[in-house]
Each structure stands twice: as C-alpha cells, then as structure tokens.
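Request from the bench team (R.T.):
"We need a structural guess for the complex before ordering more pyridoxal-5'-phosphate. Sequence and SMILES attached. Just send the tokens back."

Command: build protein-pyridoxal-5'-phosphate structure.
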Amino acid sequence: MSNSLQMMRISHISPPADLPRAFKLDKGRRISLGEVIPKISSCLVTDPQQGSTSARPVTRESKEVMETERNVLVGTYARAPVVIKSGKGCKLYDVDGKEYLDMTAGIAVNSLGHGDPDWVNAVVEQASTLTHVSNVYYSIPQVTLAKRLVECSFADRIFFTNSGTEANEAAIKFARKFQRFLHADKKLPATEFIAFTNSFHGRTMGALALTSKKQYRSPFEPVMPGVVFVEYGNSEEAIKAIQPGKTAAVFVEPIQGEGGIYSAAKDFLQALRTACDNAGALLVYDEVGFT
Ligand SMILES: Cc1ncc(COP(=O)(O)O)c(C=O)c1O
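Reply to R.T.: structure attached below.
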C-alpha cells in the first residue's frame, strides 16, 4: 500500500510487551510533602489549563507569572504550577526560594546540570568572541567540534542542527537523496519510511509523520505520507516490512524516551541492520542528545 496512513495497523498505542523497561512511573502518586503532582506531559497535546488545577498552594508572585503566561503565550503545554527562577547543579529554585531536585534535567538534556562553571565560561568566551556567522562562511569552532565528534564516534561526518526534530527532517531528506543517487537509473527510487509503535521523533511535519502517537499527529493531518508503522521490538514484522526498492530508511529509537523508557533488544537492532543492508535501505538511530 502506498499510503502508510491507511496501512497503520494501530489505532492506539499500548506499551510493547516483553521489552526491558528501566522503571515504572507511578502517575499521580503523593510525594512526601503531601502535594499532589498533576499528570504532566511536556509533549502531549493536552488542555493547557490542566496543569494549574493542582491543589498546590500558589503564592502571589507565582500566580502573577501564571496569569501573564496565559495571556501572552500560546497554550501548547500543560505545565506544573511551579515557577522556576534559577538552578545550580542538580537543584532548582522557584520564585519563592523553594528548592527542588531536578529529576528531568531540562528535558533530559542538561547533562552538566545548571550553571556548570566550565560550560558558562565556554559560552561567555564564545559569545564575546563571535556570536553567529552564516554557514556560507567557515567557522573554527564548528570544524573543531565536528572533528572531535568524528574522532570519538562511529560517524564519518557531522551535520549540525538546532533540534531533534530537525535532525530527523534532515535524515528524511538524506535518505530520499541517497536513494535517488543510488538508483539514478530508476524513475521512482525507494521513498517510504518505516517507524515503530510508541515512537516519538519530533513535531515538524516530517518527524511527526514518523511519530506513532495519534494525539500528536491527528490535529495536523495529513502529515507526510509513506510511513509504515511496525510493532517496536518485533523483528519478524520489521524484516517483512523492509522492502528493496520501496523502503528508503528505517527510523528507530534504540531507547524510546517519550514513549516511556523502553530499550530495544540487541537482536532487534541487529535484525534491522541486516534487513536494511539487504534491502539497500538506511537505518536511522534517533537518540537523545545532550548539551
Ligand atoms: C527520540 C527523540 N527524537 C526527537 C525529539 C525531538 O527533539 P526536539 O524537541 O529537540 O525537536 C525528541 C524529543 O524529546 C526525542 O526524544
């Protein structure tokens, strides 16, 4: 079937069975301070007011910020009723000076914590040396970082982007171009993509098409056609779905983050690698990056 949206065998996604999971979330449980933490997802399309309905007492300063936020920002997030003002290392402080342990590290990206002195020095030094130049010029830090990443990773070359979703947009384009280049003699080279149940690849239209969760996609449909979803961890189904001349690339999260911390088994990833090699398709690992 050419249109994967018709081919999606899943109307809702449930966690895949038999996959290793690092921990279980106990949603809505009471914490020691006796406060009810509302069910929050930073990425779900939820009622933006939902996060502010908690029983947590809200001080005047916090309330002002929250009310102003409602008037000046587009309501795309259900936020916890906490106004964070500063951070140091793994600690966060709200406008009332209350201290929190930062268990989310931004959105799983602040691996050095808040205000790391070496990181601060590097940012200040670069910002005061050269703020930004277009990619039409060469720039020393860009080349230095790329060289370092090539030296300490599997990659032969680096492509810098501003976000995870743009990395996937780039991978979609690279895959299409790769197939076109490889099969220049063919009228219609492979253009389809395979992604997995429970996946999250970003919010731009291409990455959204690779994201299985209905609540992310449905408000924006039609998204990019040509994506087939296979059950995460199911090697047999994946091997069947990866077709020479049809599949341009397979997108997989070795560890599903947004989906709920599910890790792929080594055998599954190995099966994808072999099937992609056999079909002349690319295998794209979507892994979370760190600042
Ligand atoms: C696996 C994965 N891919 C893509 C993204 C999108 O990244 P960004 O929010 O930087 O666009 C995320 C974000 O959480 C992610 O976890």
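Two things stood out. The first strand starts at residue 84 and ends at 88. Residues 107, 163-165, 200-202, 253, 257-258, 286, 288 surround pyridoxal-5'-phosphate (CB under 6 Å).
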